[in-house]
Design a protein that fits this description.
By secondary structure, this protein is an alpha+beta fold. The chain folds into two domains: 105 residues, Alpha-Beta Plaits; 133 residues, Alpha-Beta Plaits, CATH 3.30.70. The chain is built from five helices and nine strands. Helix 3 crosses helix 4. The chain is globular.
């Protein structure tokens, strides 16, 4: 029995998130496990690096699984075979052998999310970016984003009634980057993220950028530790899991 990491990407538009749930069909995890069973002829349980919600995308996602079949002699062959049976909105980049205890979720040292907005209506961006009309002060939003680097308790940006044991996260990067005249991307990196955290932060930052709340109001929202004080959650379709970092010694 060997353990492997799969590196993949997916367009989450048609899926009910990553994780298999009771009475919730059509998840990325479900599809991946079904295709691995088809190819390897053995029951495979896949564990993901995180739990993306319905409609959220991933440019980079890692999952681990164990199997009796020795894949190591021709890993690229298995990448090719898996891609031939997966739907067009899920792609596998690599399969790598890892240590027996390696875990895609618990061994990740940092994760990076991207959230995209655009300010001119564009039919080719509607599934991957949030259209925002009117002036936005991105400089002021970046000042607010800097506050996140000094924040530890992100209760104000967490979905209520989750199973998380703590709402403490350490953010190492948070800023808005301009892509074009009317396209922007919010980049945030942390050791871990709470359910709905990035979307809640984006929605609240936009209140700052549209001068609906002040920078001091933003700081107060964080201090209040109440989700009801923060802004609305940004829609799922603009959010991408972009990068996950692991210790090199996990990979064989």
């Amino acid at each position: 029995m060997s353990r492997y990491f799969i590196k993949l990407a997916y367009n989450g538009t048609k899926y009910n998130g990553w994780q298999i749930q009771e009475n919730t069909p059509n998840t990325i995890q479900q599809v991946l496990q079904e295709k691995l069973l088809m190819l390897l002829q053995e029951s495979i349980e896949v564990s993901g690096c995180g739990r993306t919600d319905t409609g959220v995308h991933a440019r980079t996602f890692y999952a681990n699984f164990n199997c009796e079949t020795d894949l190591s002699e021709n890993l690229q062959h298995w990448v090719y075979k898996l891609n031939t049976v997966l739907p067009s909105d899920i792609s596998v980049f690599s399969i790598q052998k890892v240590t027996e205890e390696a875990h895609a979720r618990f061994d990740a040292t940092a994760r990076t999310y991207h959230y995209y907005i655009h300010q001119h209506k564009n039919p080719f961006m509607e599934n991957f970016s949030w259209y925002q009309y009117g002036p936005i002060d991105f400089e002021l939003m970046n000042k607010a984003a800097e506050v996140l680097l000094e924040t530890k308790d992100f209760t104000s940006f967490s979905k209520l009634h989750t199973s998380a044991k703590t709402n403490i996260c350490y953010v190492s990067e948070a800023s808005w980057m301009q892509i074009s005249d009317n396209e922007w991307c919010f980049v945030i990196t942390a050791d871990r993220f709470l359910r709905n955290m990035v979307r809640a932060i984006v929605g609240t930052l936009l209140l700052v950028g549209k001068n609906k709340i002040t920078l001091d109001d933003f700081k107060k929202i964080i201090d209040e530790k109440k989700r009801t004080e923060a802004g609305m959650s940004a829609p799922a379709h603009g959010l991408f899991l972009a990068e996950i970092q692991y210790p090199k010694e996990l990979f064989l």
